[in-house]
Write a structure and sequence with these properties.
Blueprint (H helix, E strand, L loop, with lengths): L6 H24 L6 H14 L3 E2 L11 E5 L2 E3 L13 E10 L2 E10 L5 H19 L7 H14 L3 E2 L5 E3 L6 E5 L16 E4 L2 E3 L5 E3 L6 E3 L5 E3 L2 E6 L2 E4 L6
Antiparallel strand pairs: 1-4, 2-4, 3-12, 4-5, 6-10, 7-8, 7-9, 9-14, 10-13, 11-12, 14-15
Helix pairs in contact: 1-2, 3-4
The chain binds magnesium ion (2 copies).
Length: 250
């Protein structure tokens, strides 16, 4: 079932999104060579609770930490731990929080120290793919328009879009209907209407879009060992078009 949110509900989600944008901006500033992913996890916990919010990921389907950190060939759902980030790592941070019963879910990728040109390009393409996907999230379009815009752009750049994991509706729950694939055909799928709230999250692989899950049961890696990148926003659909709720400050 797809739930459309009323303006007063979107107002609460807007605040949730603003908090999460701030949290991610703080975390991004901490990414540097030598920091452990567990350090970042603890910082996320503090930053979320300081704002009076609940870390949504902790315990979600048994996830043991406060955010997902996925490095280099890891696509999504990496578990923070003792890993020390190194110069040149491509680091994705995916975080979620709950504010007054409403979710925000967002993430970004950032270079640790100096990225190699190929990794920087992967990051730039991923960010642009998200921008293009979000731009399609307007009344009258369909879910397939979002995925089509992402896929067409990413594949034209020579990269692959992950199929096994997708974006989603969001609201009282993190994962609501409809699913929002990063591939698709224009004009297909659920109609996008005012009040729909979506988490749009392109996952872009350097080479093959195939993935597999590590023995920890969570960490998704590229099947071929190529690097991967990810970015995500929670978006509310208004009459004027998409409103990104999880923008960083400024
Ligand atoms: Mg997320
Ligand atoms: Mg998500």
């Amino acid at each position: 079932m797809i739930t459309l949110k009323r303006p007063e509900e979107i107002a609460v989600m807007r605040q949730a999104g603003r908090y999460l944008g701030e949290v991610l901006a703080e975390l991004r500033e901490l990414v540097r060579p030598g920091i452990t992913t567990l350090d970042l996890d603890r910082a996320a916990d503090r930053a979320i609770r300081r704002r009076g919010c609940i870390p949504g990921f902790l315990g979600y389907e048994g996830f043991p930490r406060h955010l997902c950190i996925s490095v280099n060939e890891e696509v999504v759902h990496g578990i923070p731990g003792r890993r020390r980030l190194q110069d040149g790592d491509l680091v994705s941070l995916d975080c979620g929080l709950v504010h007054q019963g409403w979710w925000a879910d967002a993430g970004l990728s950032v270079g640790c120290g100096t990225l190699a040109p190929a990794a920087q390009r992967l990051l730039d393409v991923t960010n642009e793919a998200l921008r293009r996907g979000v731009a399609q999230a307007r009344p009258g379009n369909r879910i397939g328009d979002i995925g089509h815009a992402v896929q067409e752009y990413v594949e034209a750049q020579g990269f692959g879009v992950v199929r096994q994991y997708v974006g989603h509706g969001i609201g009282r729950d993190m994962h609501e209907e409809p699913q929002v694939p990063n591939y698709g055909r224009p004009g297909r799928g659920v109609e996008i209407r005012r009040g729909l709230c979506l988490a749009i999250e392109p996952m872009v692989n350097e080479r093959s879009p195939e993935t597999r899950v590590q023995p920890d049961g969570w960490t998704v890696v590229t099947a071929d060992g190529g690097w991967a990148c990810y970015a995500e926003h929670t978006v509310a659909i208004t009459d004027e078009g998409p409103e990104i709720l999880t923008l960083p400050p400024d």
